[in-house]
């Protein structure tokens, strides 16, 4: 506001922008370093590798069994997305449309898994899953990853549902639609963009979800991010370039889905629970 | 009287323009405001009146033109340097401060001593008649009370100019009437100049010393309420002033007047601003179309709304022209009535007017 | 006729109708599957872990906790974790404020927010792995320092590396959250303050900060809880046997290296308790600040 800014204000603005640019530059450089290294033959005492090759990708593919890992990752993520949608959307509808006694407790119940970090509840959860003989395999991994995502879907969908005028539903009922047909003909079409957004967000978050899978996975049920961790952990044994090649594969996987998600969703919603409607 | 507006002679708006990309929201508005005047900016939504107000406050920068307070050019100043008071449409009361703190905020920014701030806040609370609400939070007040706090906050800093952006539009009808009187009373008490934005012609007519009618970023007419009411300069201004009947027709000279064919009959009308023979627009208020047995114009009643004192009717003439008129006697649908209008109340404009 | 109606006994409303008055009907039941799921897979394991922590392999019911607080190798992890979490949280949240203040005026915000979402999406494992390379002694960062005449800095396998990783993965989150709170404040409030003579700093101090306080408290809580549970970066990028031996590592080792589920649960409970204590502290401090809506009245 105001056409002329004092010098101190302009200096402050420059400092802030310098900070932001420093952050972004360093982050991009880090990503670039990983990328470059994955294509390098040997890289010791220089700014760039001695030569470039793609053999590390082949090597990583074999060494880390990336084919199987990728399949596992997509199976896990797919199941998590589907089930959290099936459980979360109806629950969100009930919470948006009904004000029953105990509603506050239910909302708190859905908030807790999102607020408490995965490690804190992950270890007890893994213990229980192992006891139920679900630990160390795909079902365990899927169940563990569902714990934060079902509440996420619920909390993200509630504002979407509240946006639909309840009188539209009332009109449908007046003209003879029961709950089933109401969902199919009225609600799902209107909610489709919201559901899509929520599920894409779940997808992106689950691909990157480390701790829960780490605690519940067995050798045949590791997702890509966990395999990457193990590879980096044993870095002395493996060649750094093949680890970085795997890292590049991981980055591509997440970023592709991020780009798709961003077509439907504002970046801020990945972070907030879409509760804040900014005053534009 | 301790709270009184700072003195100035004249506020001059010189060709104020403001563009938003390719949209010209303001196209060269020129206006002189004298100390103590109450000016209303009147027009439909999108006419640029709020844009003009925001430019005056410094919340928007001018794309062209200038603003002068006496001999000081102020359009380059930030809003915090202009010293004008402003009442926002949604009141913009600070939700985390009590009424007293809200009102005293401007004085606090000026570095006035605490005791002095308390004294002035008390005084202004008395003026707006909210003496006992000082410690409440804005969220605990009704709409009308919030309105008065917003006004108090603007006048306590004793500004030379108070800007009001449709302050009554969020209130119900009865409250609006009460607050209208309040606003005028406070204005006269303080003696500041007030620029008041509204889309309600009744508000403008009852409050303002002078009215600026705006449309599409331009000033269409500037004058006293009487001027605008009796002699609107353009058909669109006339429409805004309640001349609901606007008939496009042909005119022929008849001495000083023009004869216009309306609804199959010929009525004499007063030319406005050099209107002559040819294509014209005739504007008549519904109140000025009287039902008389000897009227030249014959219409069939299509609808009649009972308004207590009279009936507000829509009639259709033989050639299909729709006319709004008032009838003191009861009429029903399908009745036939005859209408007449005094020539001085039929305003005839040339169709070629921009 | 009316007398006869008054004589007739009052009918009992059918159960369904009575329930509906409390808004309990078929629709409400839709919430049940998700609720049951969360209870089964979150509440129950938590409670189970809580109980299990009091059932150690050897010793009485408090043996796990006693062991934890008597072994410096174990209880030092609390301090190590706080030493990482508190500065990281403060830096991330406090830095987000001036940056968000600048960015909210931008028209092309979306580009910047998209770029900043990428670190969050990539996750802590990738960032840790990437930093191992980039901040290493032969990495580009140190090379650039040397190029400008500075000496090399040790940034990996120590506290600094983990701290940098926490900032890199945490700042975008706090920034986006602060930004969304900022844009939720009615802009006409600042405009009103400006017309009353408040310059930029005064507007920040009197209007923005009080209204932001509630959101900042939540931001601090979420950010602290996230950084306190740091794990992969502490292992990959830090010194997991030394300066960055955080409490999550102790829990992991108890569970997967010593196969002591009871001890692991105890450590997880201690971890949760520390997080809860700090959250309660932050939210308790909120009571001294305004906690209502950020709108400016009707309209």
Structural features, described:
The complex is a heterotrimer of chains A (280), B (354) and C (299). Chain A has eleven helices and no strands. Chain A has helices at 7-38, 55-63, 66-97, 103-115, 118-131, 138-163, 166-174, 179-207, 211-216, 224-233, 240-264. With 354 residues, chain B is of the alpha+beta class. In chain B, the strands form four sheets. Chain B has a six-stranded mixed sheet, sandwiched between helices. The termini of chain B are far apart. The longest helix of chain C is centred in the first third of the chain and has 32 residues, at 72-103. Chain C has 14 helices and no strands. Chain C has 299 residues and is mainly α. Chains A and C meet through helix 1, helix 3, helix 4, helix 5 and helix 6 of A and helix 3, helix 4, helix 6, helix 7 and helix 8 of C.
The averaged pLDDT of chain B comes out at 90
Biggest sheet of chain A: strands, sense, closure? none
Number of helices of chain A: 11
Q: What oligomeric arrangement do these chains adopt?
A: heterotrimer
Beta-strand proportion of chain B? 35-45%
N- and C-termini, Cα separation of chain B? 48 Å
Q: Roughly what fraction of the amino acids of chain A lie in strands?
A: under 5%
Q: What's the SSE pattern of chain A?
A: HHHHHHHHHHH
Please give the largest β-sheet of chain B: 6 strands, mixed
- Rg of chain A, Cα atoms, Å: 23 Å
């Amino acid at each position: 506001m105001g056409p002329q800014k004092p010098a101190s204000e302009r200096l402050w603005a420059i400092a802030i922008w310098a900070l932001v640019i420093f952050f972004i530059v360093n982050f991009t450089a880090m990503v670039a370093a990983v990328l470059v290294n994955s294509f390098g033959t040997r890289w010791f005492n220089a700014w760039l590798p001695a030569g470039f090759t793609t053999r590390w990708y082949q090597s990583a593919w074999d060494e880390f069994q990336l084919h199987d890992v990728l399949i596992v990752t997509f199976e896990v993520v797919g199941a998590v997305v589907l089930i959290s949608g099936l459980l979360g959307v109806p629950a969100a509808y009930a919470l948006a449309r009904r004000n029953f006694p105990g509603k506050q407790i239910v909302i708190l119940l859905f908030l807790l898994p999102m607020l408490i970090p995965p490690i804190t509840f992950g270890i007890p959860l893994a213990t229980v899953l192992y006891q139920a003989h679900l630990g160390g395999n795909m079902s365990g991994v899927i169940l563990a990853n569902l714990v934060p995502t079902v509440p996420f879907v619920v909390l993200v969908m509630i504002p979407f549902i509240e946006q639909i005028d309840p009188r539209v539903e009332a009109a449908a009922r007046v003209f003879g639609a029961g709950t089933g047909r109401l969902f199919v003909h009225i609600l799902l079409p209107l909610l489709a963009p919201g559901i899509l957004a929520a599920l894409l967000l779940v997808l992106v978050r689950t691909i990157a979800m480390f701790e829960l899978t780490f605690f519940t996975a067995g050798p045949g049920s590791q997702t890509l991010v966990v395999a990457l961790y193990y590879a980096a952990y044993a870095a002395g044994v493996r060649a750094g370039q093949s680890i970085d090649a795997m890292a590049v594969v991981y980055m591509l996987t997440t970023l592709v889905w991020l780009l798709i998600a961003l077509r439907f969703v504002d970046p801020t919603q990945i972070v907030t629970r879409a509760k804040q409607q900014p005053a534009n | 009287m301790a709270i009184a507006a700072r003195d100035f002679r004249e506020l001059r708006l010189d060709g104020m323009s403001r563009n938003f990309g390719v949209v010209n929201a303001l196209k060269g508005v020129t206006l002189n405001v004298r100390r103590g005047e109450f000016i209303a900016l009147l027009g439909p939504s999108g006419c640029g009146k709020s844009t003009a107000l925001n430019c005056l406050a410094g919340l928007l920068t001018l794309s062209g033109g200038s603003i002068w307070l006496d001999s000081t050019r102020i359009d380059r100043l930030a809003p915090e340097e202009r010293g004008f008071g402003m009442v926002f449409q949604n009141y913009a009361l600070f939700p985390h401060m009590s009424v007293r703190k809200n009102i005293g905020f401007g004085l606090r920014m000026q570095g006035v001593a605490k005791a002095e701030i308390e004294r002035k806040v008390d005084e202004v609370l008395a003026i707006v008649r909210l003496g006992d609400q000082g410690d409440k939070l804005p969220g605990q007040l009704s709409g009308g009370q919030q309105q008065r706090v917003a006004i108090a906050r603007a006048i306590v800093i004793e500004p030379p100019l108070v800007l009001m952006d449709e302050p009554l539009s969020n209130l119900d009808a009865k409250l609006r009437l009460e607050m209208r009187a309040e606003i005028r009373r406070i204005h006269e008490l303080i003696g500041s100049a007030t620029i008041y934005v509204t889309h309600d012609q009744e508000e403008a007519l009852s409050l303002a010393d002078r009215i600026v009618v705006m449309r599409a970023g331009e000033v269409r007419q500037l004058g006293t309420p009487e001027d605008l009411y009796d002699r609107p300069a353009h058909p669109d201004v006339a429409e805004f002033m309640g001349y609901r009947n606007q008939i496009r027709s042909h005119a022929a000279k008849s001495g000083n007047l023009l004869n216009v064919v309306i609804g199959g009959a010929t009525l004499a009308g007063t030319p406005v601003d050099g209107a002559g023979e040819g294509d014209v627009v005739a504007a008549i208020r519904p109140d000025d179309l009287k039902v008389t047995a000897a009227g030249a114009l014959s219409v069939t009643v299509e609808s009649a709304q009972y308004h207590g004192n009279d009936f507000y009717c829509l009639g259709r003439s033989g050639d299909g022209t729709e006319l709004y008129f008032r009838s003191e006697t009861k009429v029903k649908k399908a009745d036939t009535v005859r209408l007449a209008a005094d020539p001085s109340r039929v305003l005839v404009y040339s169709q070629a007017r921009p | 006729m009316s007398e006869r109606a008054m004589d007739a006994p009052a009918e009992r409303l059918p159960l369904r109708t009575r329930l509906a008055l409390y808004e309990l009907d078929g629709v409400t039941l839709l919430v049940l599957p998700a609720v049951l799921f969360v209870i089964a897979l979150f509440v129950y394991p938590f409670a189970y872990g809580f109980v299990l922590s009091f059932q150690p392999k050897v010793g009485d019911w408090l043996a796990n906790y006693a062991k934890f607080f008597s072994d410096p190798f174990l209880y030092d992890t609390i301090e190590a974790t706080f030493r990482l979490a508190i500065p990281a949280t403060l830096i991330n949240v406090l830095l987000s404020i001036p940056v968000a203040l600048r960015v909210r005026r931008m028209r092309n915000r979306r580009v910047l927010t998209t770029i900043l979402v990428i670190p969050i999406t990539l996750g802590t494992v990738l960032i840790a792995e990437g930093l191992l390379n980039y901040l290493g002694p032969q990495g580009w960062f140190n090379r650039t320092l040397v190029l400008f005449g500075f000496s090399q800095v040790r940034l990996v396998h120590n506290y600094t590396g983990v701290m940098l990783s926490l900032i890199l993965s945490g700042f975008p989150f706090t920034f986006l959250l602060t930004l969304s709170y900022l844009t939720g404040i009615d802009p006409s409030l600042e405009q009103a303050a400006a017309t009353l003579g408040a310059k930029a700093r005064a507007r920040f101090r009197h209007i923005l900060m009080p209204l932001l306080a509630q959101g900042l408290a939540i931001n601090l809580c979420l950010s602290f809880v996230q950084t306190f549970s740091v794990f992969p970066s502490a292992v990959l990028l830090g010194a997991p046997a030394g300066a960055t031996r955080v409490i999550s590592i102790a829990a992991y080792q108890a569970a997967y290296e010593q196969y002591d589920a009871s001890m692991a649960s105890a450590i997880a409970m201690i971890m949760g308790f520390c997080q809860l204590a700090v959250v309660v502290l932050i939210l308790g401090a909120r009571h001294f600040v305004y906690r209502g809506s950020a709108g400016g009245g009707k309209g």
